[in-house]
Amino acid sequence: MAPRQRLSAEVRRRQILDAAAALVLEQGHLPLSLERLAGRVGVSKGLIYEYFPTQPDLFNALLAEEQAALRADGMPETAEDVAGSSAAHRCADVYLRHIASTGPLAHFILRDAYMAGHVDPAAVRLRDRLIRGFARRARLELRLPAAEAIAAVLLVLAIPEEMGRLVWQGDIPLETAQKLVAQLVTSSVTALTPAASADPA
Can the peptide bond before residue 31 be classed as cis, meaning omega within 30 degrees of 0? Predict the structure, then answer.
């Protein structure tokens, strides 16, 4: 019988990350059972600790990959460089397609209480950069106070996130989700414009 081939550190790390992502999406919350993760990968818990000494280390590695994918699709640059509602529509479509194909992994990691105080500062900076970029535009173009601008951005971002989740779960097709997201983002921006919110004469 031929000896088992030893996997490289890079391949083994990839296996752990892929298995962890799948488990987080299956259970919908953090933390993970390391016994279950080790069983999924076919390694010992000790080997997982060699690659990721803590679960926050593991989840931050997953989050870094999620954000790298969004950066590769140009989401932060679109938020800063494209004018007006076009930026909201383009970013919403990027975010929708990402979640539709990979699931709401970043959502679970960023918003689970388990990660409170443990999210990598670089990930927080990228998230805040995106939100601040949209909020700054909302303050200027829609004349919203700062707190209202941030609240509006978070609500609008929830539209592609939830629609992407429905596509990922197989509940609706991507094309339907894209149409609904476009309509809802347009409606949201319109409702927030000063002319739309003004009292009738």
Answer: yes
**Domains of the chain by start residue, with CATH:** 7-53 (1.10.10.60), 56-194 (1.10.357.10)
Model confidence at 201, in pLDDT bands (50, 70, 90)? very low
Segment holding 180, helix H or strand E = helix 174-192
Angle, in degrees to the nearest 10, between helices 55-72 and 9-27: 90
Distance CA 131, CA 79 (A): 9
Residues 182, 125: contact at Cβ < 8 Å? no
Residue 175: burial class (beta carbons within 10 Å; 0-12, 13-18, 19+): exposed
Residue type, 25: L
CB neighbours of residue 2 within 10 Å: 4
Question: Out of 35-39, 46-50, 60-64, 192-196, which region has the weakest mean confidence (pLDDT)?
Answer: 192-196
Q: Which two tokens stand for residue 19?
A: 């298995």
**The two three-digit tokens of residue 92, written as one number:** 């919403």
pLDDT digits (tens, 9 = 90+) for 94-149: 999 999 999 999 999 999 999 999 999 999 998 888 888 888 888 888 888 888 88
Tell me how far apart the 2 most distant CA atoms of the chain are, in Å: 87
Tokens of 84: 């007006």
- Residue 54 has a CB neighbour count (10 Å cut-off) of 11
